[in-house]
User: Fold this.
Amino acid sequence: MTDKWHQLTALQLGDKIAQGEIDPVELTDYFLARIREKDPDNVIYVRLTEDRARAEAAAASARAKSGQRLSPLDGVPISWKDLFDTAGVATEAGTQLLEGRIPERDAEPLRRATRAGLVCLGKTNMPDLAFSGLGNNPWTGTGPNPFDAENDRVPGGSSSGAALSVYHGLAPAAIGSDTAGSVRIPSAWCGITGLKTTHGLISLEGAVPLSPSQDTVGPLTKDISDANILCAIMSGKPAADLRGASLKGVRILRATTVFDDLVIPEFKQTLNDALEKLKSAGAEIVEGPVPAFQEVLDICNENGYPGMLEGYALWGDMIREHPERIFSAIGRRFMAGETFSAANAIKLDFALKRLTEEYQQQVAGFDLVVGATQPDIPPLLDKLYEDDTYYLEMALMSISLTRLGNLLGLCATTFPAGFAKGFPVGMMLMAPGYQEGKLLRISKAAEDALKM
Assistant:
């Protein structure tokens, strides 16, 4: 069975540890060996934390033998995006601007995971300072999308290495961040599951920031159950009770605003087919507009996006001083923030608060809102470096649907709904902030319905 451990979910592995069927030390060595074999160029993991992983696994092994496990995932190894601080280990957030940066202590989400007994395998790849939904990085290399055997396409970002670590069985689960879609985009394009948590639910302490008002921490996993338990561990909140999850009586709004304009026909059809399965399982699916979706985009077009404005405030001076140490296309997106005024930022803040309330009024009476996670297939990798216009178009395309949830303070899941044009199509379910329990329970029922 040891040659199949990478096919199991994190909870399945945890259960086998509890039953004495798997020793955490052997499990950790198994994944470290797979990483060395499958990622020789370090395009998925930028660095491993082997000594730490083995020490944590040894401690987990002792707890398992004495019946004192700390959580259902005690002894399970996972990967961490390279913007989460790791004590004594370089954390560079994908950019040469932070080359050689070694934090003194772990990020708070990592500390919580460690206290629950999880094993830290290493740090996964990402684009400069997480400011890209594409996932490419000219400094560290880019792991290609696994669904095109002939052309290198992006995996999605900015949690690119995180998604690839799960897809390729180099970690049972991964922790990433989501500012405008950076958990959901690579999850959708790589055919796995992702959870965008409500802003503030999980501490950002020790995470290299892009947009403090929008940054969120979230898991990338094989299924909803794993996302649920990892969210609980990192947030300190009880896990949602997923037992008996059902779609009977659930009302879901399929948003037409923005989604109908941007999603390609093949993806629309795949999503509609998936929604028919949800209807067969008891859900009521209603199509309708959500005006706040378009209005929030219009407000941002006038006043700037939070990621750009806050990112420029945080990193603009460093980029101006060392422009050669950041991918030029991302550097330009940061520096575009200097064209906006303080008045723009204040207008934006007021508008986002107002529109968040209006959104909740517009979707009242529905349990969740649904749409495609991505509007199109992932773009070609090489062309991103050859054509600046193409890069910008694709960068905006990648976040065009997911950013709605960040701007309006929502939580959201994505999980595979089928395939179109040879690529997985993600189904994105969205709920108002701090409704993760309801979101995860309905997502679990939807996940089950799609497998039938």
In short: The chain has a mean pLDDT of 98.
